Every structure is written in C-alpha cells, then in structure tokens.
Amino acid sequence: MKTVFSYLSSYKARMAFGLFLKAVGTFAELVLPLIMAYMIDDVAPTQNALALSLWGAAMLVCAVAALVGNVTANRMASRVARDTTTRLRNDLFAKILSLSARQIDEVTLPSLVSRLSSDTYNVHNMIGMMQRLGIRAPILLVGGVALTFTVDPVLALVLLFTVPVLTIIVVFVSKRGIGLYTRLQRSVDSMVRKVRDDYTGIRVIKALSKTEYESETFRKINEEVVANETKAGVTMGVTNPLMNAVLNLGMAAVIFVGAYRVSAGRVKVGDIIAFTSYFTIILNAVISVSRIFVNFSKGGASAKRIGAILELPRDLIPVPEEKKAEDDAFIRFDHVSFSYNGAPALTDISFSLKKGESLGVIGATGCGKSTLVALLLRFYDVDKGKITIDGKDVRAYGAELCEKFGVVFQSDFLMAASVKENIGFERELTDEQIERAAEYAKADKFIRAHEGYEGMLTARGANFSGGQKQRLLIARALASSPEILVLDDSSSALDYKTDAQLRKTLLQNLPETTIIMIAQRISSVKFADKILVLDGGKAVGLGSDEELMRTCEVYRRIYASQHEGGEAYDGI
User: Fold this and answer.
1) Which residue, among 112, 90, 137, has the nearest Cα to 294 in the 3D structure?
2) Would you state the pLDDT for residue 572?
3) Domains in the chain, start-ordered, CATH in brackets?
C-alpha cells in the first residue's frame, strides 16, 4: 500500500489546499446549531428584528461558506483521485509489459487483468473518499461531540459513553474487512480467467455442445464470488446499523436526562434543539466514518495487490559481458538445460547456426520446441549452459535483442484493425515494406481480393481463414527485415502446395536471414540446412534430412507416420 500512496506525493499542495477548504466548510457547518440556539433562547425573546436579521445573515454566510468550501474541495479531491489513478494505471500497465514470462506465469494473466481494472477502480474510490470524507467526518464527529459540551456538559457526557463502543466496532470490522476483500479479489481473478478462456474458445465450446457444462462451471465460480462478496459486504455493512443503534440508544438516554434538566430549569429549549442538531451531525459523521472504513478496506486490499506487482524486482537484467567471443557461428546453443518449476523442459541442447542458415525443429507435442525459442528470445533464462548470438551471450543484450527477431508464435494474435496496421504493427514501416512482406508471405493476392491493405479485420481476425491469418502473421514477422526469423508452427493451417511455395520464397529472397522453423510436418522442415529432432526435451538427432533418415530412429518414425497411406506434397 505504501507504493500506491507514494503516488499522492506529487499532489501534496493541491491536497493540502483542498483539505483546508474542506475544514473551513465543515467548521462553518458546525457553527450553525450554536447560532440557532442563541437566536431561539436569547434573541427571539427580545423581539429585536434587526438582531434577528443580523444573526440570520450570519447563518446564511456560514451556510454559503460550508457549501462553497465543500463543493470546491470535493472537485479538487476528484481531480487528485483521477490523476493519481491515471498515473498508477499507466505505470502498472508498463510494469506488466516489463515482467518476465516466469513472473507472468506466477501471477497469471487473469490476475493481472483484475489488478489493472477492478483493483485500480477500488483505489480510485478510496483516494477520492479519503479526501472528501477523511477530514470532514472526523471534524464533524469530534467537533460535534466537543460542541455538545458547550451546550450542556451533563448531556454531552451521556452521549460520550457511546464512543468506546463505536471505536471497538470500527476497529474490529475494518480489521476483518481487508482480509475479506483480498479473498474476494482472488475469486474475481478466477472469474476473469474463466471468462477469458470461454471467450477464446467459444467456437470450440459450441461445436462440442459444452455450453451447459461451461455455464454450470461459470455458475459455481460466480457463486463463489457472490459468497465472498456477500460475506465481505455483510461484515462491513454491519458497521452502519450497529453504530446507529449505539448512537440512538445514547440519544434516547440524552432526551430522557434532558427532559428532567429542562423541567428543572437547568437547560433551555434552544439548547435541546442545538443538541439534537449536533446529534444529527454526529450521526451523519459516524455513517461517513463507516463508509470510509468500507472503502478503505476494499481499496487497501486492492492497493496491496497493485503494490505487489509494482514492487516485483526486475527480472532478466542484462548481464555485463567483458568481451564478445570469437565465434564462427551466428547462433549457438551450448549444453543448454531448462526447467519449468523443477520440471525439465530441455536437457543438454547443443547446436550452432551460421548467418543465413536455416534450422528446422521437429518432435512430438510437449518435447520443448517452443521452449527453445523462448530461451533464444530470453523470455526465460537458461538453468545451465549458454546461448549466444553473434558471439554475445543473450543475457548480455538489452532491448536490442528482440529487434533482431521476426517471430510468429504458436498462439499469436491479430488486432481488430486494418491489414496494414496488423502487418506494420506501429513500426513506422513504409507501404513498400509492408506489401513486399505480404508478397513473400504469399498473402498479397488474398489481401487485395479482400478490401486491400486498408480492409479491416474483426476481433482475432475471424473474417479470415486459418491459413490466411498465418500468412498475415508471417508477413508481420518479415516486414522489418529481421536478422533472425522464427516461425513456431506457423504453417500448420497451410496446404502443402502453399507451404512449399512459402519455403521456396523465403530461401530465395532472404539469403542473409537465419531461419528457425518449428513444425509438426517433416515436409515443412526438410528444406532446412539442419534439422533438430527433440524427444522428451532431449536432442536425439541433428543433421540434414538425408542424414537423419539414416541415423535417427525418431525421425524415421515421424516420417513413416506422416507418409503412411500416401506421399505428402513435396514442393522442393
């Protein structure tokens, strides 16, 4: 929470002036019952019209001061809350983008979405309310109680007996509230995760007739959210009625005692009216205090969750390297091993590629093909071994590392924007570069037939076929003329003929680009200078297609399974 509140330091002067105005308006409001009591008991009996007018004008001045001060202070509080939350949300978003893949895996994407949306909203409400009521409610409460002593000390003491009880209620409830709202936000994370998964797989869910199952699963998660919200709401909501009950009992005692004192001539009627007015003020202040603690509990829980992300240490910091090693290889994996939370993904992987060479990576699902690319891009750091690009350890690169790559990931995305915007991706590329990349990716023809480069894509490119989307993604990767092109299962939706034509175009037009292609089909990688065969995270074969057919049993089994019953199209 300390991290979140540090954002308020930039607005100290504005907050101080706003709180000053709020205090002036609140004190003006507190004076009104005293003036009213004086007018009833001392001015009205004299029937002095001038005095009554003057004191009435004084009440009007106080009322206007209270209105102007409170309204102005509220507007300033809203601006501070708005500006603080804007900065906080921007910094949180930037921090999320800078997190390593391992950190994102630990926090989870749904939780990050929840923290960026509902948690920042809760913090916004907390900051605004703390300024609007944080100074007003205590002044009304303490000032109201203090001024009741000036009216009648005996009656004030009767009312004062309620203060310890009120304090115990507030402390107990607010202490439980933060824990309950933290649990609530965790269940909201689960609901966001479920909604995201179902939205992504809506077509599969419908195709497999699993809508009822998914609805039932969502209902259970929703019931958990409702249960946690109800528990938190009931716990915090009990504050208001309990406080009202305690104060009303105190007020009943005040009226009972006050009646005897009026009849005994020790208290005037105007004092009783002023006292009831102050009771109303105190009651409203107590209600405001309860609202403050509800919002503070909710906002405090959210602030801790946001602070936990902002305080995450920077991962994958560039490691200084004294001297770039002399290496004839452009890319080298040197005995690389890696595991996800202790589960081995790659074990002792070694290979090298010269600039302009191509590497095909093939193997069964889950054998570590995509992990190999993630390590090359330094989404994760290796557990053992070393990866170098142009003789330099990838851990010694900064932001310039990813600038070397053009990548199509296994699960990539397209924006609901124009074809040109999807290929250019805000990289200040010329129309010529974009169109050339589309031609290389065999996408230019269908793009022009589909409203051209200014034509719009729907969400996730749903108005294009799977093969067309893959070619758009390949065009995006090629557009910036990368030194290294990584295609992670990016031709799975292409027919054999188009796949072969694409490979031929890449070889002819990108002689200086080092290509790494991950695929399930042998026909997609057999053109490569080298083919790496993975099995269970281990390299069981490395060489050309002809060499592997002679030396690698796993490669031969893959070939046999894919060619059984007929030859696949071989365009090269």
Assistant:
1) 137
2) 37
3) 7-310 (1.20.1560.10), 331-563 (3.40.50.300)
